[in-house]
Amino acid sequence: MVNYIDAVDAPLKNTGAIRLYSADDFAGMRKAGLLTARCLDELAAIVKPGVTTSTIDRFVFEFGMDHGALPATLNYRGYKYSVCTSINHVVCHGMPDDKPLKEGDIVNIDVTYVLDGWHGDSSRMYPVGQIKRAAERLLEVTYECLMRGIEAVRPGARTGAIGQAIQTYAEAERCSVVRDFCGHGVGRLFHDTPNILHYGRADEGPELREGMIFTIEPMINLGKPHVKVLSDGWTAVTRDRSLSAQYEHAVGVTATGCEIFTLSPAGLDRPGLPPLKR
Ligand code: MF3
Ligand code: CO
Ligand code: CO
Q1: Candidate of 77, 110, 217, 249 to mutate for ligand 1, largest count of ligand atoms within 8 Å of Cβ
Q2: CB of 105 sitting under 6 A from ligand 1
Q3: Taking the domains of the chain in order of start, what are their residue ranges?
Q4: Which residues surround ligand 2, an ion (CB under 5 A)?
Q5: What ligand 1 atom has the least distance to the C-alpha of 81?
Q6: Is the full-model pTM beyond 0.85?
Q7: Is 192 in the pocket of ligand 1 (CB under 6 A)?
Q8: What does the H/E/C string look like for the chain?
Protein backbone atom coordinates (compact mmCIF):
# COMPACT_ATOMS: atom_id res chain seq x y z
CA MET A 1 0.00 0.00 0.00
CA VAL A 2 1.18 3.51 -0.77
CA ASN A 3 0.49 6.39 1.61
CA TYR A 4 0.56 10.04 0.75
CA ILE A 5 1.40 12.66 3.37
CA ASP A 6 1.21 16.42 3.45
CA ALA A 7 4.88 17.43 3.19
CA VAL A 8 4.64 19.85 6.15
CA ASP A 9 3.59 16.96 8.41
CA ALA A 10 6.25 14.54 7.19
CA PRO A 11 9.40 13.84 9.23
CA LEU A 12 12.66 14.76 7.50
CA LYS A 13 13.49 11.16 6.65
CA ASN A 14 12.25 8.67 4.13
CA THR A 15 9.35 6.88 5.85
CA GLY A 16 8.01 5.30 2.68
CA ALA A 17 5.09 7.73 2.46
CA ILE A 18 4.98 9.95 -0.62
CA ARG A 19 5.10 13.64 0.27
CA LEU A 20 2.64 16.06 -1.28
CA TYR A 21 4.07 19.55 -1.50
CA SER A 22 2.30 22.94 -1.40
CA ALA A 23 2.45 25.89 -3.79
CA ASP A 24 5.03 27.55 -1.50
CA ASP A 25 7.12 24.39 -1.64
CA PHE A 26 6.95 24.46 -5.45
CA ALA A 27 8.29 28.02 -5.29
CA GLY A 28 11.26 26.77 -3.24
CA MET A 29 11.94 24.02 -5.78
CA ARG A 30 11.66 26.52 -8.62
CA LYS A 31 14.50 28.58 -7.07
CA ALA A 32 16.75 25.61 -6.35
CA GLY A 33 16.07 24.12 -9.79
CA LEU A 34 16.83 27.40 -11.53
CA LEU A 35 20.17 27.74 -9.74
CA THR A 36 21.15 24.22 -10.81
CA ALA A 37 20.04 24.98 -14.37
CA ARG A 38 22.09 28.20 -14.42
CA CYS A 39 25.18 26.28 -13.31
CA LEU A 40 24.60 23.68 -16.05
CA ASP A 41 24.20 26.58 -18.52
CA GLU A 42 27.57 28.06 -17.49
CA LEU A 43 29.23 24.68 -17.91
CA ALA A 44 28.32 24.62 -21.61
CA ALA A 45 31.07 27.20 -22.22
CA ILE A 46 33.56 25.49 -19.89
CA VAL A 47 33.43 21.92 -21.19
CA LYS A 48 35.97 21.49 -23.99
CA PRO A 49 38.95 19.31 -24.88
CA GLY A 50 41.74 19.67 -22.28
CA VAL A 51 39.52 20.68 -19.37
CA THR A 52 39.63 18.33 -16.38
CA THR A 53 36.59 17.14 -14.46
CA SER A 54 38.29 18.46 -11.27
CA THR A 55 38.03 21.92 -12.79
CA ILE A 56 34.31 21.30 -13.34
CA ASP A 57 34.02 20.11 -9.73
CA ARG A 58 35.64 23.31 -8.44
CA PHE A 59 33.41 25.43 -10.65
CA VAL A 60 30.26 23.73 -9.32
CA PHE A 61 31.41 24.20 -5.72
CA GLU A 62 32.29 27.89 -6.21
CA PHE A 63 29.14 28.69 -8.16
CA GLY A 64 27.11 27.21 -5.31
CA MET A 65 29.03 29.18 -2.69
CA ASP A 66 28.55 32.39 -4.67
CA HIS A 67 24.77 31.84 -4.66
CA GLY A 68 24.19 30.57 -1.13
CA ALA A 69 23.81 26.91 -2.09
CA LEU A 70 25.63 23.71 -1.13
CA PRO A 71 26.18 20.76 -3.48
CA ALA A 72 24.09 17.91 -2.05
CA THR A 73 26.58 15.28 -3.17
CA LEU A 74 29.47 16.68 -1.09
CA ASN A 75 29.97 14.16 1.77
CA TYR A 76 26.76 12.36 0.75
CA ARG A 77 27.23 8.71 1.83
CA GLY A 78 30.99 9.28 1.68
CA TYR A 79 30.99 10.85 -1.80
CA LYS A 80 33.69 13.52 -1.85
CA TYR A 81 32.76 15.78 -4.77
CA SER A 82 30.37 18.59 -5.68
CA VAL A 83 29.28 16.93 -8.91
CA CYS A 84 29.20 13.62 -10.79
CA THR A 85 31.03 13.57 -14.13
CA SER A 86 30.31 10.44 -16.15
CA ILE A 87 32.31 10.05 -19.35
CA ASN A 88 31.53 7.76 -22.33
CA HIS A 89 30.83 4.24 -21.00
CA VAL A 90 30.41 5.56 -17.44
CA VAL A 91 26.68 5.32 -16.69
CA CYS A 92 26.56 7.52 -13.58
CA HIS A 93 28.38 8.58 -10.40
CA GLY A 94 31.69 9.20 -12.20
CA MET A 95 34.09 10.99 -9.86
CA PRO A 96 35.94 14.12 -10.94
CA ASP A 97 39.70 13.70 -11.44
CA ASP A 98 42.69 15.33 -13.11
CA LYS A 99 42.38 13.60 -16.48
CA PRO A 100 41.62 16.08 -19.28
CA LEU A 101 38.50 15.61 -21.37
CA LYS A 102 39.33 14.76 -24.97
CA GLU A 103 37.80 15.54 -28.33
CA GLY A 104 34.94 13.13 -29.05
CA ASP A 105 34.08 12.37 -25.39
CA ILE A 106 30.53 12.67 -24.14
CA VAL A 107 30.19 13.64 -20.47
CA ASN A 108 27.19 13.76 -18.19
CA ILE A 109 27.38 16.48 -15.55
CA ASP A 110 24.98 15.95 -12.65
CA VAL A 111 24.49 18.83 -10.20
CA THR A 112 22.27 19.03 -7.11
CA TYR A 113 22.22 22.31 -5.21
CA VAL A 114 20.53 22.60 -1.85
CA LEU A 115 19.08 26.11 -1.66
CA ASP A 116 17.02 27.09 1.40
CA GLY A 117 16.59 23.37 2.08
CA TRP A 118 15.30 22.52 -1.42
CA HIS A 119 17.17 20.10 -3.69
CA GLY A 120 17.57 21.08 -7.35
CA ASP A 121 18.75 17.87 -9.05
CA SER A 122 19.49 17.90 -12.79
CA SER A 123 21.98 16.63 -15.32
CA ARG A 124 22.80 17.10 -18.99
CA MET A 125 25.12 15.56 -21.55
CA TYR A 126 27.97 17.68 -22.96
CA PRO A 127 29.73 16.77 -26.19
CA VAL A 128 33.47 17.49 -25.98
CA GLY A 129 34.46 19.07 -29.30
CA GLN A 130 33.26 17.15 -32.34
CA ILE A 131 31.63 13.81 -31.49
CA LYS A 132 30.78 10.79 -33.64
CA ARG A 133 27.34 10.47 -35.18
CA ALA A 134 26.55 7.37 -33.08
CA ALA A 135 27.27 9.33 -29.90
CA GLU A 136 25.19 12.27 -31.07
CA ARG A 137 22.31 9.94 -31.85
CA LEU A 138 22.52 8.47 -28.33
CA LEU A 139 22.28 11.96 -26.83
CA GLU A 140 19.26 12.78 -29.00
CA VAL A 141 17.52 9.52 -28.08
CA THR A 142 18.24 9.96 -24.37
CA TYR A 143 16.98 13.54 -24.28
CA GLU A 144 13.83 12.46 -26.10
CA CYS A 145 13.40 9.64 -23.53
CA LEU A 146 13.49 12.19 -20.72
CA MET A 147 10.97 14.46 -22.41
CA ARG A 148 8.61 11.57 -23.25
CA GLY A 149 8.80 10.46 -19.62
CA ILE A 150 7.94 13.99 -18.49
CA GLU A 151 5.01 14.14 -20.92
CA ALA A 152 3.53 11.05 -19.24
CA VAL A 153 3.30 12.87 -15.89
CA ARG A 154 -0.21 13.87 -14.80
CA PRO A 155 -2.43 13.21 -11.79
CA GLY A 156 -4.12 9.82 -12.02
CA ALA A 157 -1.41 8.19 -14.14
CA ARG A 158 0.95 5.75 -12.39
CA THR A 159 4.73 6.10 -12.12
CA GLY A 160 4.89 3.15 -14.55
CA ALA A 161 3.54 5.38 -17.32
CA ILE A 162 6.84 7.27 -17.19
CA GLY A 163 8.86 4.08 -17.44
CA GLN A 164 6.74 2.70 -20.26
CA ALA A 165 7.09 5.88 -22.32
CA ILE A 166 10.87 5.85 -21.90
CA GLN A 167 11.43 2.15 -22.50
CA THR A 168 9.17 2.03 -25.55
CA TYR A 169 11.01 4.87 -27.25
CA ALA A 170 14.55 3.78 -26.26
CA GLU A 171 14.05 0.22 -27.50
CA ALA A 172 12.39 1.36 -30.74
CA GLU A 173 15.62 3.31 -31.32
CA ARG A 174 17.68 0.12 -30.70
CA CYS A 175 19.03 1.43 -27.40
CA SER A 176 18.65 -0.09 -23.92
CA VAL A 177 17.43 1.23 -20.58
CA VAL A 178 19.63 0.83 -17.48
CA ARG A 179 17.65 -0.95 -14.72
CA ASP A 180 20.06 -0.54 -11.80
CA PHE A 181 19.39 3.16 -11.12
CA CYS A 182 16.18 5.13 -11.10
CA GLY A 183 14.63 8.55 -10.57
CA HIS A 184 13.47 9.42 -7.08
CA GLY A 185 11.33 11.63 -4.93
CA VAL A 186 13.16 14.89 -4.26
CA GLY A 187 12.41 18.12 -2.41
CA ARG A 188 13.28 18.44 1.28
CA LEU A 189 15.26 15.21 0.88
CA PHE A 190 17.81 14.39 -1.84
CA HIS A 191 16.55 10.85 -2.40
CA ASP A 192 13.00 10.12 -1.29
CA THR A 193 10.07 7.86 -2.15
CA PRO A 194 8.87 6.97 -4.73
CA ASN A 195 11.38 5.32 -7.07
CA ILE A 196 10.79 6.36 -10.66
CA LEU A 197 11.71 3.41 -12.88
CA HIS A 198 12.71 4.17 -16.46
CA TYR A 199 11.13 0.96 -17.76
CA GLY A 200 7.98 -1.02 -17.10
CA ARG A 201 4.27 -0.73 -17.70
CA ALA A 202 1.76 2.09 -17.34
CA ASP A 203 -0.39 0.14 -14.85
CA GLU A 204 2.50 -0.32 -12.39
CA GLY A 205 3.66 1.80 -9.47
CA PRO A 206 1.93 4.33 -7.25
CA GLU A 207 -0.59 6.78 -8.66
CA LEU A 208 0.70 10.27 -9.37
CA ARG A 209 -0.97 13.05 -7.39
CA GLU A 210 -0.80 16.81 -7.56
CA GLY A 211 1.99 18.02 -5.26
CA MET A 212 4.38 15.10 -5.78
CA ILE A 213 7.96 16.09 -6.68
CA PHE A 214 10.48 13.70 -8.20
CA THR A 215 13.27 13.34 -10.74
CA ILE A 216 13.22 11.57 -14.07
CA GLU A 217 16.75 10.65 -15.13
CA PRO A 218 16.92 7.86 -17.71
CA MET A 219 20.30 6.24 -18.39
CA ILE A 220 20.29 4.87 -21.94
CA ASN A 221 22.98 2.65 -23.52
CA LEU A 222 23.94 2.06 -27.13
CA GLY A 223 24.66 -1.57 -26.21
CA LYS A 224 23.25 -3.86 -23.53
CA PRO A 225 21.62 -2.48 -20.36
CA HIS A 226 23.93 -4.21 -17.88
CA VAL A 227 26.01 -2.19 -15.48
CA LYS A 228 28.79 -2.86 -12.98
CA VAL A 229 30.13 -0.65 -10.20
CA LEU A 230 33.93 -0.31 -10.11
CA SER A 231 36.01 -1.09 -7.00
CA ASP A 232 35.97 2.60 -6.01
CA GLY A 233 32.40 1.87 -4.88
CA TRP A 234 30.84 4.63 -7.03
CA THR A 235 31.68 4.59 -10.74
CA ALA A 236 29.00 2.65 -12.63
CA VAL A 237 29.99 1.52 -16.14
CA THR A 238 28.34 -0.47 -18.91
CA ARG A 239 29.49 -4.11 -18.75
CA ASP A 240 29.96 -4.19 -22.53
CA ARG A 241 31.76 -0.78 -22.44
CA SER A 242 29.14 0.66 -24.81
CA LEU A 243 28.39 4.40 -24.62
CA SER A 244 25.84 5.54 -22.04
CA ALA A 245 23.96 8.82 -21.72
CA GLN A 246 21.65 10.49 -19.21
CA TYR A 247 19.61 13.67 -18.83
CA GLU A 248 17.75 14.55 -15.63
CA HIS A 249 15.06 17.00 -14.63
CA ALA A 250 13.25 17.56 -11.32
CA VAL A 251 9.49 17.91 -11.85
CA GLY A 252 6.41 18.61 -9.74
CA VAL A 253 2.96 17.18 -10.50
CA THR A 254 0.37 19.90 -11.16
CA ALA A 255 -3.41 19.68 -11.63
CA THR A 256 -3.02 19.16 -15.37
CA GLY A 257 0.47 17.73 -15.90
CA CYS A 258 3.77 18.81 -14.44
CA GLU A 259 6.14 21.70 -13.92
CA ILE A 260 9.82 21.24 -14.77
CA PHE A 261 11.91 22.96 -12.08
CA THR A 262 15.28 22.57 -13.77
CA LEU A 263 14.66 23.92 -17.29
CA SER A 264 17.50 25.97 -18.77
CA PRO A 265 16.68 29.70 -18.81
CA ALA A 266 19.13 29.97 -21.74
CA GLY A 267 17.57 27.20 -23.84
CA LEU A 268 20.62 25.01 -23.24
CA ASP A 269 18.79 21.88 -22.11
CA ARG A 270 20.67 19.91 -24.80
CA PRO A 271 24.08 21.62 -24.85
CA GLY A 272 26.03 21.03 -28.05
CA LEU A 273 23.05 19.64 -29.95
CA PRO A 274 21.08 21.62 -32.52
CA PRO A 275 18.08 23.45 -30.98
CA LEU A 276 14.84 21.45 -31.08
CA LYS A 277 11.73 22.57 -32.89
CA ARG A 278 9.11 21.18 -30.51
N1 MF3 B 1 22.61 13.44 -8.51
C2 MF3 B 1 22.49 11.99 -8.51
C3 MF3 B 1 21.03 11.72 -8.78
O4 MF3 B 1 20.59 12.13 -9.80
C5 MF3 B 1 22.94 11.37 -7.23
C6 MF3 B 1 24.38 11.45 -7.00
S7 MF3 B 1 24.75 10.79 -5.47
C8 MF3 B 1 26.44 10.83 -5.44
O9 MF3 B 1 20.28 11.18 -8.02
F10 MF3 B 1 26.74 10.56 -4.21
F11 MF3 B 1 26.92 9.99 -6.31
F12 MF3 B 1 26.87 12.01 -5.76
CO1 CO C 1 18.54 12.38 -9.23
CO1 CO D 1 21.25 14.02 -10.35
Answers
A1: 110
A2: no
A3: 18-260
A4: 121, 215, 217
A5: 12
A6: yes
A7: no
A8: CCCEEEHHHCCCCCCCCEEECCHHHHHHHHHHHHHHHHHHHHHHHHCCCCCEHHHHHHHHHHHHHHCCCEECCCCHHHCCCCCEEEECCEEECCCCCCCECCCCCEEEEEEEEEECCEEEEEEEEEECCCCCHHHHHHHHHHHHHHHHHHHCCCCCCEHHHHHHHHHHHHHHCCCEECCCCCEEECCCCCCEEEEECCCCCCCCCCECCCCCEEEECCEEECCCCCEEECCCCCCEEECCCCCEEECEEEEEECCCCEEECCCCCCCCCCCCCCCCCC
Instruction: Quickly name the fold that domain 18-260 has.
Output: Creatine Amidinohydrolase (3.90.230)
pLDDT tens-place string over residues 220-272: 999 999 999 999 999 999 999 999 999 999 999 999 999 999 999 999 999 99
Q: Minimal CA–CA distance to 37: which of 266, 209, 221?
A: 266
